[in-house]
Structure formats: C-alpha cells, structure tokens
Amino acid sequence: MLPLVLTGILHLGSRLARGPLAEWFWADTRQQLPGLSLALMALLLALAANVGVSTMVGSFRLTFSGWLDQRLASEALRNRAH
Fold first, then answer.
1. SS3 sequence, the chain?
2. Interval 30-82: pLDDT, tens
3. What is the per-residue pLDDT for 16?
4. Is the backbone of residue 19 left (phi > 0), alpha (psi -120 to 50) or beta?
5. What pLDDT digit, counting tens, does each position of 1-27 carry?
6. How many CB atoms lie within 10 A of CB 63?
7. Longest dimension (CA), the chain
8. d(CA 44, CA 39)
9. How far apart are CA 10 and CA 25, in angstroms?
10. What burial class does residue 14 get, using C-beta atoms within 10 Å of its C-beta: 0-12 exposed, 13-18 middle, 19+ buried?
11. What local confidence, expressed as pLDDT, does residue 65 receive?
C-alpha cells in the first residue's frame, strides 16, 4: 500500500513543481521508487519472518514449560506418596 501512496504523492509533487530543479527532483525521486518498493517488500518479509519465529518460539516455550510443570508435579506427588 505504501508504494501506491508514495506514487500518488510523487505525481502530485511533480504537477505542483515550479522550475527545472524542482521537476528534476520529483522525476529523480519517481525513478527511484521501484528500488524503494523492493526494499520495503524485503523489510516486510523480514518483519513477518521475525514475528512468525518469535511466535513459534514463544509457543514452544509455553508448551514445554507447561509440560515440565506437569511432569515435575506428578513426580513430586508420586514421591510424596511413597
């Protein structure tokens, strides 16, 4: 969504540009947009992978901790009975 918003802003800026320097600035900025879109997509994928791995690790930690608590509690009750 961000590249589309940036494209709209750049087109608006180029229409409002006065003078050759301003037109050059907006044209050059528009030319760099595909590379920026690729970088933003890579950042989004890295962020999604980070959130996914973090969620999986947290879920595993909670599951293992619950299992370990149950296991130790049953061991303690069994040793107490004897």
1. CHHHHHHHHHHHHHHHCCCHHHHHHHHHHHHCHHHHHHHHHHHHHHHHHHHHHHHHHHHHHHHHHHHHHHHHHHHHHHHHHC
2. 888 888 888 888 999 999 999 999 999 999 999 999 999 888 887 777 777 66
3. 84
4. left
5. 777 888 888 888 888 888 888 888 888
6. 10
7. 92
8. 9
9. 10
10. middle
11. 93
Q: Are 36 and 56 in contact (CB under 8 A)?
A: no
| Pair 9, 26: CB distance under 8 Å | no
Q: Output Rg (C-alpha) for the chain, integer angstroms.
A: 28
Question: CA of 77: how far to CAs of 63, 65, 68, 81, in Å?
Answer: 21, 18, 14, 6
Q: What are the tokens at 51?
A: 């959130």
